[in-house]
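Project outcomes to date are best conveyed with an example. Our students and postdoctoral researchers have been running inverse folding experiments weekly, and each run begins with a structure described purely in C-alpha cells. The record below, which covers 155 residues, was selected by the lab manager from last quarter's runs and is presented without edits.
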C-alpha cells in the first residue's frame, strides 16, 4: 500500500522565466504536501532518457501550457500519454480546453500557490479514493477467503 509520500509528480514546463518560476514553486509546494516532484532541467530541447525515467516513475504529469509548447514539452506529454500516466494541464486564464476532463487555470494576478493547492488537493483526493477502493477490494478478498476456509472445515 502506498503512503502519501509515495505520490510522485512530474512537471513539464517551458523555458520561459514565468514557467520556470511556477515549476519550481509547484515543486516546493508539492514537497510540502509530502509528494515527490520532478522538474526537468532544460539543457536540451528534446526529451532525455533521464526525463523518460522520471515520467515512468510518476503518478501524474503536470503540464504547464502557458505558451505554445516547445518540442520537449510535447514529447513529455506524448510519452506520458503512451504510458497511460494522467496529464494535469495548467492553462492561462481565459483559455478553454475541450475534451479534457480536468484542467487548472493559472492567473498571473493571483498567488501561484492558489493553483498549486488546487492541484495537490486534487491529487491527494484521487489517491485517497484509489487507496480506499484498494482496501475495500482487499477486505472483500479476505472475507471470501475466510468464508471458503470456514466452509472447507465444516465437512
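After processing, the design step wrote out the following sequence:
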Amino acid at each position: 500500500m502506498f503512503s502519501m509520500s509515495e505520490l510522485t509528480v512530474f512537471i513539464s514546463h517551458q523555458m520561459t522565466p514565468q514557467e520556470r518560476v511556477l515549476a519550481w514553486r509547484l515543486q516546493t509546494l508539492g514537497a510540502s504536501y509530502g509528494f515527490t516532484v520532478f522538474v526537468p532541467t532544460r539543457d536540451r530541447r528534446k526529451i532525455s532518457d533521464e526525463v523518460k525515467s522520471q515520467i515512468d516513475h510518476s503518478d501524474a504529469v503536470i503540464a504547464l501550457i502557458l505558451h505554445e509548447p516547445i518540442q520537449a514539452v510535447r514529447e513529455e506529454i506524448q510519452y506520458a500519454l503512451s504510458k497511460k500516466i494522467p496529464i494535469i494541464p495548467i492553462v492561462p486564464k481565459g483559455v478553454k480546453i475541450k475534451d479534457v476532463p480536468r484542467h487548472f487555470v493559472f492567473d498571473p494576478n493571483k498567488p501561484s500557490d492558489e493553483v498549486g493547492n488546487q492541484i495537490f488537493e486534487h491529487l491527494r483526493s484521487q489517491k485517497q479514493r484509489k487507496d480506499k477502493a484498494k482496501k475495500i477490494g482487499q477486505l472483500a478478498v479476505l472475507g471470501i477467503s475466510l468464508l471458503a476456509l470456514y466452509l472447507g472445515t465444516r465437512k
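Helices lie at 17-32, 49-56, 71-82, 112-153. The first strand starts at residue 8 and ends at 12. The training component of this project remains on track.
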